[in-house]
């Protein structure tokens, strides 16, 4: 059935990001003077949809909820400019979701999100999946809705990918409907419920394929009983805000284009690295041509970084 389908549907959040640059992210109780201020389209769902289309070159649609305010058109315009087809739930009396972001000069950030209309997305809002090959989800919309989306897609033979962010425990019926789980290290610990080696935690998750992103170190994945590592691409990072979302969208697009997991991880890592070299969430997401350019310039993997990453993940005793 999947062979007759080609579209990725992203169901999730859409926000407007208010970004202030500063020397560093303030500590609790600390007030600092910032510098540049910008307003950008963002939200995990919208970022990942745009990454599927722009960085991955995939036919992409998105289910999202927007408020009846002046910020909704900014989100729509950004997604439509990347040829993402939209299924919009209009929420009268609600604000479009917003994120307040402080971006430090070390490229780290602190983010506070007000969900607004995102909290109104319901399971019954899911459009037809007849032409959809993969459904990509996150956790910035109600968990009940995410679970309903995943179960509906699984029942219709659609591949389900979940980026379990923000970090939280996941119900068993949601996990049972997931084909590919994408998490960072802290989110992986939350899903597993313990602190252990990366390899042990990946093995503990009852999902066929699990990918953990490890920031500047790279990423590690387990598919069935096989492990993969991909060191990060070295770039001059200035803003990590949408790097994880770019990774998720590019990975989903690569997998739906039938790239082997090892190659899909490499493409997603290259896209995420490029996203850190620009300010803003969606404006930072690279094109397919830019991803191909970085990959073409980095034909030879760093064997030392590869072995160091395997050691960090607890894979030194596992054969390649």
How does this structure look, described?
By secondary structure, the chain is an alpha/beta fold. The protein has a single domain, classed as UDP-N-acetylmuramoyl-L-alanine:D-glutamate ligase (3-Layer(aba) Sandwich). It contains 10 helices and 13 strands. Strands 5-4-1-8-9-10-11-12-13 form a 9-stranded mixed β-sheet, with helices on both faces. A 4-stranded mixed β-sheet has the order 3-2-6-7. The protein is globular and about 55 Å long. The two termini are 33 Å apart. The model has no long low-confidence stretch (mean pLDDT 93).
The total number of structural domains is 1
Estimated structural class: alpha/beta
Rg value: 19 Å
- CATH architecture label name: 3-Layer(aba) Sandwich
Order of helices and strands: EEEHEHEEEEHEHEHHEEEHHHH
* Assigned CATH class: Alpha Beta
What does the overall shape look like?
globular
Strand runs, count:
13
CATH topology: UDP-N-acetylmuramoyl-L-alanine:D-glutamate ligase
Under CATH, the homologous superfamily reads Ribokinase
What's the tally of helices?
10
How much helical structure, as a percent, in the residues?
Answer: 25-40%
Strand-helix topology:
Layout: E1 7-11, E2 15-22, E3 37-42, H1 44-54, E4 60-67, H2 72-81, E5 85-91, E6 97-104, E7 109-114, E8 132-137, H3 143-155, E9 159-163, H4 172-175, E10 180-184, H5 185-192, H6 198-204, E11 209-213, E12 218-223, E13 226-231, H7 243-256, H8 261-275, H9 288-297, H10 303-312
Parallel strand pairs: 1-4, 1-8, 2-6, 4-5, 8-9, 9-10, 10-11
Antiparallel strand pairs: 2-3, 6-7, 11-12, 12-13
Helix pairs in contact: 1-7, 5-6, 7-8, 8-9
């Amino acid at each position: 059935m999947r062979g007759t389908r080609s579209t990725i549907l992203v169901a999730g959040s859409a926000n407007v990001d208010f970004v202030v640059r500063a020397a560093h992210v303030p500590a609790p109780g600390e007030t600092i003077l910032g510098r540049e201020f910008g307003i950008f389209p963002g939200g995990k769902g919208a970022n990942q949809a745009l990454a599927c289309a722009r960085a991955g070159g995939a036919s992409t649609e998105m289910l999202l909820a927007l408020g009846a305010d002046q910020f909704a058109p900014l989100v729509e315009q950004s997604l439509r400019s990347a040829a993402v087809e939209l299924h919009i739930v209009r929420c009268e009396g609600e604000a479009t979701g917003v994120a307040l972001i402080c971006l430090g000069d070390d490229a780290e950030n602190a983010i506070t999100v007000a969900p607004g209309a995102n909290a109104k997305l319901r399971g019954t809002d899911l459009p037809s999946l007849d032409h959809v090959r993969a459904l990509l989800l996150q956790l910035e919309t109600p968990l009940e809705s995410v679970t309903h989306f995943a179960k509906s897609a699984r029942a219709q033979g659609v591949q389900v990918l979940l980026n379990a962010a923000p970090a939280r425990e996941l119900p068993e019926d949601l996990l049972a409907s997931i084909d590919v789980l994408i998490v960072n290290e802290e989110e992986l610990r939350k899903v597993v419920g313990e602190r252990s080696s990366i390899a042990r935690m990946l093995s503990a998750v009852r999902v066929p394929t699990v990918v953990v992103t490890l920031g500047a170190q790279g990423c590690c994945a387990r598919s069935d009983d096989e492990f993969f590592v991909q060191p990060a691409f070295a770039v001059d990072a200035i803003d990590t805000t949408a790097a994880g979302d770019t990774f998720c969208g590019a990975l989903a697009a690569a997998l739906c284009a039938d790239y082997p997991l090892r190659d899909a991880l490499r493409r997603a890592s290259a896209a995420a690295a490029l996203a850190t070299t620009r300010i803003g969430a969606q404006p930072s997401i690279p094109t397919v041509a830019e991803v191909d350019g970085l990959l073409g310039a980095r034909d030879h993997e760093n064997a030392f970084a590869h072995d160091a990453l395997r050691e960090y993940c607890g894979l030194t005793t596992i054969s390649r």
